[in-house]
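Researcher: Here's my situation. A collaborator sent me these components and asked whether they could plausibly form a single complex. I don't have experimental data yet, so a predicted model of the whole assembly would be a useful starting point for our discussion.
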Amino acid sequence: MFIAGASLVTPGRAPSIEEMFVATTQAADETEGAMCLMPEDVDAPSDAVDDRSNVVSGFSRTEQQLAIPKSSNVEGGDLPPVRMVVDPYPSFNGVAVDTTNDLVMMSDTNRKSLLLYDRTVGSPTSKDMATPRQQIMGPDSGVGFVAGVAMDPQHRELFTVNNDVEDRLVVFDYDARGNVKPKRLLYVPHQSWGIAFAPKRDVMALSVQTPNMFVVFKREAKKFDAPIRSVRGAKTQMADPHGIYFDETHNEVVVANHGNFRPGELITSYTAYDARESRQERAGGDKLDENARGRFLPSSVTVFDGDANGDVAPLRVIQGPLSQIDWPMGVAVDEAHDEIIVANNGDNSILVFPRTASGDVPPKRAIRGPLTGVKGPMGVAIAKDEIYVANFGDHTALVFPRLAGGNVRPRRIIRNAPAGRETSGFGNPYAVAYDTKRQEILVPN
Amino acid sequence: MTRLSRTTHGIAYDTTNDEIIAPNPLAAAVVIFRGGAVGEEAPVRTIQGARTGLSRPETVAVDERNDEIVVGDPGDRRVLVYRRTANGDAAPIRTIQGPTTKLLQIVGVAVDPIRNVLVVSTYSRLPGGVTGLLMFGRTDQGDVAPKRVITGPKTGITRLRQIALDPETGKIYVAAINNEYLPPYNIDKPRAGLDPDVELPSPWNTGSEGFIGVWDDVADDGDVPPRSLVKGRSTGIVHPAGVTFNAKHGEVIAPDAVWNGLFTFLKPELFKATAGTQ
């Protein structure tokens, strides 16, 4: 049974939401799904959120008969849900590999945690969840809607950045586990997504979606420290950047862009949560540019000089139909073999380009097809001649040989849920609509 | 191909025309899909361009009776109304904007074509700024004052997001997220003015509790409590940001980003023609 669901509908002691939230993941081993369905005697569409829905994921669910009232307590409104969709398992997002200590770390957007595994964890055939060495999770950790991750074996520090809401990067010791406070906390621009750690420079670069920029902080930056430089502006050709990689061998920064673009004139404050400044105020009355407009640009990979600063053009851009780049999320560079690896979320593939590729060029290899298991890839990393892929559309991460291409099976599968468990696909859901025709619930992320 | 972004804070379904409408704030666009769209499918129409007046569209609604799409855009603090079939660089047919409107951070819009009401949810910490619901005439335009304003401590709203409106009853469903948010980030002086030792809590760890509240779009005005609530530990919702309903089956539906979950509540008494109460 779904432990959180049972807790939610049990009167009496009211555990804090944080306690319940942590409990859901701790109890995940014992859970079988995340749906509480209505009692049979209540006249309502018990199949309203059924397998036919392609919007609300159909879990392998277990029906639990609960003492649910037929209507609410109007005065208090403290009534249990008749149905809920909550995925009790983690969903992988960012991935980083430490070859010094043979560790792999992934961020978990769904249950809001960091998971550390042995680097060689996983199996090509096992149906079981992989056991993490440690998990950092809980309200004290500051780990929320996390995305990018990085590891620094020299200083034994773990990094992750919250993409939304929390607007902070948190740093932990290698041995951290459970609900621990971060060793350091850095407030970062809203919608920071990727982290690129550059150990020789001792800096980290963060991609930031809304202002189409990346910023560079000292590794030890904390609290309200400002970035030491930023790359932003029309010349950069960045548009809704996500993945970022700092290639210190060639002194380049590689950025993956979705292609959603607004010019600077349309960008007010670096947060979605405040209206203290409108475009009119920023522009100053009649200076408002009414010709400014948003655009859809083709998804791209932009490559910058490692010392870039300000509004500068990229050294190279990979973009166009031949490139097949489509909603690129994570990006990595195989500095030894001169290749750029892209988690191509839009078509469930991994693309590999020559490091110096430019223009509308096809990838030299693509891992794509039903045998690969690549589904909604978010993070990608390369280490010891293996490519690590963190899936968001499935409860797995995958490991391929470096030269894998085509429709091939992964060498290892790292499961964060028992095989067969579907993901809800939720990532910070902020809106909903009801499709009366199909009896489906529409939830954008 | 979908022209969606990973930042979609609004969505509407058009029952009459079987279409899905969503804003893309990162590309200053509104995209419209066929109702059965699946996978990487292109929108059937896209509203985007300099004439559209879109800056950062955050929320959308559809007026099926009058064939209009309503967009809330906090980037310019305005509400824009387009013909339902608008496509490309199309100008709005009406715009509500200006200091008299009290529009600030617009996060929800809804239309009642029967009572001719346009409802906007807005919030701000600006001095004098309204956090609550603004009720305009459906065809209002320009710098007009709202006809009614629901705001104040009795509402229980400290911050709100998406709203939904049932024209059959005139009830407004409000996602009162009631969490905190951080001040804007200035890249040169992050969080300037704050004590350097201050610890900003996670916006989720506020101690406050969100809820789904229900008001009447004509009868309610001022500092009035909701007529109905979904709130409390049993509900599972903590900081709900979205809300919709299934009137036929008497259900109120809300996602919650704390849980990354979706919760459905049975509230047949709120609807005029709920299957289970006939």
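Model: Some features of this prediction you could bring to your collaborator: Residues 113 and 137 of chain A are 5 Å apart (CA to CA). Chain A touches chain B through 113 residues (CB under 8 Å).
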